Automatic annotation (TrEMBL):
It comes from the Bacteria. Pathway: Amino-sugar metabolism; N-acetylneuraminate degradation; D-fructose 6-phosphate from N-acetylneuraminate: step 5/5. InterPro entries: Glc/Gal-6P_isomerase, Glucosamine6P_isomerase, Glucosamine6P_isomerase_CS, NagB/RpiA_transferase-like. Catalyzes the reversible isomerization-deamination of glucosamine 6-phosphate (GlcN6P) to form fructose 6-phosphate (Fru6P) and ammonium ion. Keywords: Carbohydrate metabolism, Hydrolase. The gene is nagB. GO terms for cellular component: cytoplasm. It catalyses: alpha-D-glucosamine 6-phosphate + H2O = beta-D-fructose 6-phosphate + NH4(+). Its EC number is 3.5.99.6. Residues 10-230 form the Glucosamine/galactosamine-6-phosphate isomerase domain. The lineage of its organism: Bacteria, Bacillati, Bacillota, Clostridia, Eubacteriales. This is Glucosamine-6-phosphate deaminase. PANTHER family: GLUCOSAMINE-6-PHOSPHATE ISOMERASE (PTHR11280). It holds the Pfam family Glucosamine_iso.
Amino acid sequence: MKLIITKNYEELSKKAADEMADIIKSNPKAILGLATGGSPMGMYKELIKMNKEGKVDFSNVTTVNLDEYIGLSGDHPQSYRYFMNENLFNHINIDKTNTYVPNGLAKNIEEECKEYDARITELGGTDVQLLGIGNNGHIAFNEPDNELLSGTHLTKLTEDTIKANARFFESIDEVPTQALTMGLGGIMRSKKIIVIASGESKAEAVKAMVSGKISTNMPASMLQMHRNVTVIVDEAAAKLL
Ligand code: GLP
């Protein structure tokens, strides 16, 4: 794992945006695996700025997102589709038909998961996968467990994750309890992985990801088995390294 420690969140966001922009510059048709949550928001702002300044062109880029809440439509303000539109897609020159997020309202969940994986395969896999990390070490919505799944699947969120994500909702009761998530296989097949984490609350998980034992009970530790991972963390998140 390549480790980059930045002074603060702002510097982390710039660094991550530069890494993404370099990938797009070297391959204008890049397939980007994207993530939601607080961590990538600053990076998306930087990418929007770069796009407006003509420094990076998204017109031929395709994106594949990691996950989506079950039961929320794309126009629900807390859905991940809405998040992506608001925080990135609406502000850059991307063709929205080339942006994929699992459908949290799919009638046939099994079919939706199969199609999502087939689409990723058809695209030839992602060139880069961006990841945040949960306080409990989850990546996408692959929660700590005795076993992890490879393909896109339906998952139940842990109490920890529901609590952590309640900050985006009016009350904790509104947080969906289930989600569709890309599995570990989909993530590990990416040519490159960039993990970003900021703040002291992530320090334990960051330490376990970088130097802990590899365990399905710490999903991020599985990334130690990937050959091209860059971890970008600020000093607070790197505190225990
Ligand atoms: C969420 C998402 C993850 C995200 C993580 C951390 O539950 N499903 O993809 O990386 O939690 O979120 P944040 O960046 O807001 O701390």
